[in-house]
Structure formats: C-alpha cells, structure tokens
Amino acid sequence: MKTLLVLLPMIVLLLDSRAKADPANPYKIVNSVQSIGTGGIDYVYADSDGRRLYVPRGGEVLTFDLDTLKQVGSIPNAKAHGVAVDAKSHHGFASSNPVVMWDTKTLETIKTISTQGRPDVIYFEPETERVFVFSHSEPNATVIDAKDGSIVGTIDLGGAPEQAASDGQGHLYVDIQDKGNVAVVDLKTLMVTAHYDLGGKTSAAGLGLDAKNRVLFAFCREPATAVMLNADDGKILATLPIGSGVDSGGFNPKTMEAFSSQRDGTLTIIKENSPSTFEVEQTVQTMPGAKTCTLDTKTNHIVLIAVERTPDTASATSSPPATPNPTTPSSTPSTGGDRHGNGGGPGILHILVVGR
Length: 356
Fold this sequence. Notes:
The protein is mostly beta strands. The chain has one domain: Methylamine Dehydrogenase, Chain H (7 Propeller). The protein has two helices and 28 strands. β8 and β9 (about 110-115) form a beta hairpin.
C-alpha cells in the first residue's frame, strides 16, 4: 500500500504530461468568419479582458466580439497598422498618424495624438501603463501615457523595430528588423542598454518572451528561423525552422509554447520543454496571407487574419461568401494586404481561430 501511495503522484504526473503532448489533440482551426470590405490589413489584436478583437483595415479599425466574432462597431478615421489596449484605463490606441485614442467600452474617440515618424507596430506595456508606437523611421519609438494620452518621450532604437515584449522587471525587448538584433530598453530611463545579435539571421518580424524562464523567441524571415535567446545576456540557446514570411509571433506561458504566423499559410508551434530545449511541436495549416496573429489569453486560442482578393468585385459585394469548414482552410492565394500600405481594394476578410 505504501509503495502504491508513493507511485500514485508519479503516475498522475506522467498521465498529465502525456495528455499535454497528446498528438491526437493537435491545434486546428476551430472557428472562422468572413466579411466583405475594402482596404489592406496588417496586425490583429485581441483584448482578452474586454473580449474584443481589433482589425485595422483601410481607414478604420474594425471591432469584433472576441467570443462570437460578430462585428460590434469600428473606430473611424484610423488608417492604422496595429492596436494596443490598456485594460485598466479602458483606453485603446491605433498606430495611425495621428494616433487615435478611444474608449474601449463605447468605441468613442477620445483624442488624436500627433507623432513623428511613420507609426507601424504598437505595444502596450502593463508595468508602466505606457503605449509604445514604433516607426521604421526616426524616432523609432514614441512613448505615450495610456491614462491621458500624453507623450512621455521618444527612443532611438538604432534600426527599424517590429514586435516588442516586456518582462515585468523593467525591460522592454524589441526585434530590430533591418539590423538582425533585439534591442533591450530600460523602461525607467527609456534608453537602449544592449543589442542582442541573432547570429546572422535577419528580418526579425515576430517576438515572444517567456519572462519566468528568461527566454526570448525571435522569429526571422531570412532564413525562416526561430532564434531562442537568453533574455539576460543575449546568448543564443537554439534555432529551429519556421514557415516562410513570418510577420508576428508570441509566447503562451500557460502552455509553454511559442508560436509564429507566416504568409505561406502556416502557424508554427514551438514547445519549450525546458529553458534550454525546444522543438517544433506542430505546423498548423491556416491560409495563404495569414501572416499576423494574436493570443486570446483567456481561451488559449490564436487568432489570425488574411484578406482574399475577389476576382469579381460586383458579385462579391452583393452576396457574402459561404462560410468554409473551420477545419479546411481556404487554399486560394491571398495577399493579406500590403505591409506598409493599407490601400488595397475590395476583398474578403478572413478571421481564423486556432485552438485545441
């Protein structure tokens, strides 16, 4: 009996680990919706607390219910690339020029904020309750107080920034696309304290962070690689292949998985088995052009977007497309919208939800 009592916890742990890695329960498309509209797209953002999904398209930010995926409104006059939300102040921000600030409960615009450069990626940092608006031209980052929309300062990152992640310990990490490195920013001084080299990998366009274990996941286009680094000293821990045309990524501490979305219609899932060992757990087929993604931290779902150009604009506008089988993504080529030009023509916006 004593032997059984000793072995029982070990058996439970073994069964639990097998359940988490069960190949019979893979990631797949669990939901999808489509809508006709005009304009290109770039980043998608899930407000997990407010249960809203934001998709900048053309000259507005489309707003959807994160649970039902039904459109609930839009933010007008916001030709933006991305969105950031402060759950405490209930303020949303779009990386348009000027930056548009709104009330996330009412979707009413509060103010516009003039910034320099060309706003692109945007990131809300919860420790300081500040919004970082990134630009590929100087100044590389404009810092905004999320509570009142005032500009706190600017940062020279030494190159063109893409995604960012903070560790809750006073550091912000930003992958620098054209320099093949990750910039480390001191959140108190707003100064760059280091650049972590990516070992010759370039065009870093996605970033994830395991803050607890101090692991950065930099997703690069050339070559198509995930580079895992020590967040404290920049030492490269490992590299793994990913799909082609990555444009965003992240890390889910609940599942200990990093993920990256690619233009070639793949979503790469990387399992962190330990702080120094990693493996490509799964490559999920999404749809061509679904190059950006966001994590719903409540459901552990990953949401992606793509635009499918319609050959017959008239007929597409008059009748919406049939909803495809969620487990069978479209194979129709998609442009997904231009990276730095949200002026695309009419097309079908696809929202894909990936989960287990």
